[in-house]
Write a structure and sequence with these properties.
With 228 residues, the chain is α/β, with parallel strands linked by helices. The chain folds into two domains: 8-19 and 87-221, HAD superfamily/HAD-like (Rossmann fold); 20-86, Putative phosphatase, domain 2 (DNA polymerase, domain 1), CATH 1.10.150. The chain has nine helices and six strands; from the N terminus they run βαααααβααβαβαββ. It has a six-stranded parallel beta sheet with strand order 3-2-1-4-5-6, with helices on both faces. Strand 4, helix 9 and strand 5 (189-192) form a beta-alpha-beta unit. Helix 1 (20-33) crosses helix 4. It catalyses: psi-UMP + H2O = pseudouridine + phosphate.
Length: 228
């Protein structure tokens, strides 16, 4: 299979660079447990990539919770403050980001996270995230009107590169189905590193599916290869 050559790369964060999706699950389950509810993986997939207020609405309506959107967000923030600083890097993420930086490949971070939760998650990884010159934090960015699966976060992120690359010049790295849909809607190729629990049929829209970022070969997309 041949892929289109690209010049710019855009990274999702949660579940791709950091294991924060695991911590997010724990945080939401801690809240739902008070009401005898369960945070299923099926529901989690629907929420992945949504902005914080969108996620809160879905959680409240799905479980008929006696909370307002604002209250749900506040309860979540309390949990996140405790859990998110424990975020760990996913396999291959550090090596790939440093490789692109070394070879001057323009990189952007395009996440649905808010600025507040972003700062918590990168507590022990600030040096690595400083390599991203351009960051779009969807839940805190007024230009990002809609969360994934809409393309807003990727289109906004790409527009912030000084040379304004076309969508076809950009390669997105994602872990979530909603993120893949967003990248495709933006007209970009997308490498997916899905949670192993995601059904194979749900990954069909991705340009390339990998079990880990460790397996990514940059030269497939015309990017500088790793040298052993």
């Amino acid at each position: 299979m041949t892929f289109r050559k690209v010049s710019h790369v855009l990274f999702d964060m949660d579940g791709l660079i950091l294991n924060s999706e695991v911590l997010y699950t724990a945080a939401i389950q801690n809240i739902l447990s008070r009401y005898g509810k369960e945070y299923t993986f099926e529901l989690k997939q629907k929420l992945m990539g949504l902005q914080s207020h969108e996620s809160a609405k879905v959680l409240i309506s799905t479980h008929n919770l006696p909370l307002s959107v604002e209250e749900m967000i506040e309860e979540s923030k309390k949990q996140f403050a405790v859990l998110f600083p424990n975020s760990q890097l996913m396999p291959g993420a550090k090596n790939l980001i440093e490789h692109f930086h070394k070879h001057n490949v323009p990189m952007a971070l395009a996440t649905s996270s808010s600025k507040e939760s972003y700062e918590l998650k990168i507590t022990h990884h600030k040096e690595l995230f400083d390599l991203f010159k351009y960051k779009t934090l969807g839940s805190s960015d007024p230009e990002v009107k809609r969360g994934k699966p809409y393309p807003d976060v990727f289109l906004v992120a790409a527009s912030r590169f000084p040379d304004k690359p076309k969508p076809e010049q950009c390669l997105v790295f994602e872990d979530a189905v909603n993120g893949v849909k967003a990248a495709k809607a933006a007209g970009m190729q997308v490498v997916m590193v899905p949670d192993p629990r995601i059904e194979k049929s749900a990954t069909a829209e991705a340009t390339l599916v990998l079990s880990s970022l460790v397996d990514f070969k940059p030269e497939l997309f015309g990017l500088p290869p790793f040298t052993s």
